[in-house]
Specification:
The protein has 515 residues and is mostly helical. It is built from 32 helices and no strands.
Amino acid sequence: MLFHKIFHKKQNFFSSSLDSHIQDFYAGDLRALAKIFCVFAENISTQKLKASQVLNEALISSSFDDICKIDIQMRETTSMEWNIDWKTLKIENFITKQMSKDEQRAMLIFSSFNPNGYIREQALKLLVFYEETLPYLVLRLNDWVYNVRQTALTMFSKRLVEATDEELINTLPFLHKLQKSKRGDNFIISSLMQDKFCANEKLLEKGLANSDVRTRKTCLSFLSNTSLPKAALLLKHIKKESDPFVRRMIFQILFKENIKIEELSKQFLKDKYPANRLLALQYLYDYNIDLAFIKAYQMLLDRNLQVRILSREIIKTIKKTDNFHQFYLENLSSNTTIAVYGLGEVGSKEDCYIIEPYLKNSKIAVVRAAMISLMHLDSEKYITIITEMLYSEHSSIVNTAFILLKKYKDYDYKKILKAYQEIDYENAKIKCALLLFQASKWKTLLYILTIIGSNYEKLEAICQAQLSRWLLLYNNSFQSLSKKDSEEIKILINIKKPFLTSKIEKELIFLLKNN
């Protein structure tokens, strides 16, 4: 109430602090835009003009992601902004004679972000008369207020008739966002936009050539849903496409249309994205089995596991039998990393003596391949050796050891604790801690209390989070607490007091007493 009285005594509160908020915006604080906008609730024309100029600058310099962020932030208002009774204001009064068309447009766009539904709705009714506003109408099609959504739909339909090619293309990222939402008539909007693009091949080409991947994806979705001839356009575009997921979309559309893409498949077999190589090999297997057989042999040494598996399946299907084991043995010297992986995939425990020496290889990739293959073939025998790999100074080897131990589970907690105590690298300590936190209920608490207060920032944050999680999930299991563990936990609670909040300390003591 006190602020409310002060605010009404000082009617031009926001206008008087406008320069300060503008400085905050120029310093990179997007939240300042909400306070700058509040000037329009007051009656100083010069300040309204200045605010509209800054809002226009903000629009010009903002990306799609920035706009979405600003839209959310404008609604995260403080008590200051809520003291403005927006529903009593007329949006026409926000405009001054001195404002340019662009400045008026900027003010109206920011009005459509306003926390008050009445202002948002009024803004939409005026936005339709300004160029380059279709994207912001689409943004409001996902509004949480039904009346605002309905107004946005009406205004969208009107604006769509006059929208320029550039405006339509700039709308696509917003449409892509809308298609993922559950509010509004997404199908109707998508259909209207699809009709617009599919009636204009040059517009489609512009969309496919756009730098925003969301724009390209949306154009492809339009194409995939029409009966238009699309092979020439897609084959032309795929050569230029940099995004692997978009390349995959194009390939799948061509595949679905039964268009011959044998040459394209050969190119896709060299794609950096494994899923694309897999897709191409599957296509060849379905449409040119002889070529698939040849390519499958070449891809037995692919970097990706799934590609190697499919290659072996194709060869076995066609040839019925094949000695993959011998193939990988023969390639150990020329393509060591993949050959070691291959032996782990098709070999047996007897092959471990061949693979084990590669744990000492100078190449990290080879060491990692050996670790994975040995655990796949004989985890019981090699789990101790893999535990020792946590001591490695190479983070990728430590990470691989962690993943393998977590996957195969049957590791020695005492050895992991010993490794934690002896290792100096924070990354390795974190991996050891996370493995220890996989222990039984009370042992996990013991390990958390042992590690907490480690003086490592990231590790400390993990420990505190794990302790909160342990308390939250306490009732999910009913394991008994041994007297020995109980005494150890009591001692640790006392030792680690400086790192425990009084609330958590009391809660732990209470739980111990009741066990």
